[in-house]
Amino acid sequence: MSGYNNQGYSFYNALQVRYEKRFATGLTATASYSWSKLIGGLGYLNGGDPTPERVISSADRTHRLAVTWIYALPFGRGKHWVNSTPVLSTVIGGWQLMGVFTKQSGPPLGFGNAIVTCPLNQIPLSGSQRTIGEWFNTACFNRTSSQQLANNLINLSSLFTGIRGDGIRQVDLSILKNTRLREGINLEIRGEAYNVFNTPMFGAPNTSSPTSSAFGTVTTQFSTARTIQLAAKFIF
Questions:
Q1: What is the rounded distance in angstroms from the CA atom of residue 54 to the CA atom of residue 7?
Q2: Picking from 54-58, 122-126, 178-182, 210-214, which range would have the lowest pLDDT averaged per residue?
Q3: C or N: which end of the chain has fewer Cβ atoms within 10 Å?
Q4: pLDDT tens-digit profile of 72-86?
């Protein structure tokens, strides 16, 4: 037998800041930052609970910073440098450099029906201590097979806002040139590089089985390797 009810809920609060600056040199930069929290009650911690568990959402990302910039190089017709030689001006003029830097918090982690043996603030490890072999302090958990919980009411939260997986740290760059070949016909040349510094971003660690030797380890990554692509197109 199954049924439906309308007890689920979620709500989102955020502080959002955006700053844009245009420089006389042809550079435009924009920085956007959000500090947010997404909380929901969309599932039951125990089957017999009267109301859904109120907990941080798995989609919550506390901090997100995005910085973008566009720089029109000062060469060619109408620019400060090399603007009097038509052929050279056409070749080296019209170039734009663009970039995006993104940094974002990772997803909150949970540990199921585990036995925690230390204060929750001791579970996260600092950046200098954290490795893919031990993403969080596994010593804070009872890992003895014979002592694991089975038929009990769960009172450990399913997710924790202060214990998180890896986030996003990525720089993307591109270069673009528009050249007017004749009236109504333009050539666009573009080069793009994603994840320029080839920064690895890891998937969530193993949190489901404290008795496993893989508990606390990271075995996947969600980032893609540095990708470079070139393109050209006629616009008419």
A1: 11
A2: 178-182
A3: N
A4: 887 766 666 556 566
Model confidence over 13-35: pLDDT tens digits? 999 999 999 987 789 999 999 99
| HSE-CB for 153 with a 13 A CA cutoff | 3
Count Cβ atoms within 10 A of the Cβ of residue 82 and give its class: 0-12 exposed, 13-18 middle, 19 or more buried: middle
- The owner of tokens 């197109």 is 233
Residue type, 210: P
pTM: predicted TM-score of the whole model, two decimal places = 0.83
Q: What is the 3-state secondary structure (H, E, C) of the chain?
A: CCCCCCCCEEEEEEEEEEEEEECCCCEEEEEEEEEEEEEEECCCCCCCCCCCCCEECCCCCCEEEEEEEEEECCECCCCCECCCCHHHHHHHCCEEEEEEEEEECCCEECCCCCCECCCHHHCECCCCCCECCECECHHHECCCHHHCCCCCCCCCCCCEEEEECCCEEEEEEEEEEEEEEECCEEEEEEEEEECCCCCCCECCCCCCCCCCCCCCCCCCECCCCCEEEEEEEEEC
